Structures are given as C-alpha cells and as structure tokens.
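hey can u check if this looks right to u? its 83 residues, i copy pasted from the old doc so theres a chance i mangled smth
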Amino acid sequence: MKSSIRKIGNSKGIILPQSFLKECFIEDEVSIEVKDNHIIISAPEDVKRKGWEQAFKEMAANGDDQLVIPDLFNDEEITDWKW
C-alpha cells in the first residue's frame, strides 16, 4: 500500500488505515523507531499482550488451561536423547 506524506504543522505525517491499527492492537499510542533506513511503527510493549493476564486467569479458573500437545508423545524414545 502506498500513502501520501502530509504536512501537519511543522511536521509531516501519514494516514494509517483503521484495519492496520486494529490488526496491530494500536489505539491511542505507538512506538516509533528507525532501523536500517526503515521507520518501524508498532504498538507499545505494554499493549501487545494487553488482556492476556486476565484471559489466562479465566482459563485457569475454568479448567481450560490444559496442554493441547503433550510434553511427550507415546512413541517417543527419550532413551536415545543425549543430555
């Protein structure tokens, strides 16, 4: 996608589609950095996993926090492993 750079006061800016912001969990604030001549815009670290703690607590309370994949498979030969 291409976007025009617009003059905003003494600065310049771009308009980001709402769908992009929603997909990245960006609401009111962003983290911006320059790396290897690229501008990287991302959600602040505290927003990326927002709500996970509460969701995990609810899963544990409901008994929904069981392993989907077992630690060991029935046909797994751990005697061949070297430690």
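Residues 15 and 82 are 55 Å apart (CA to CA).
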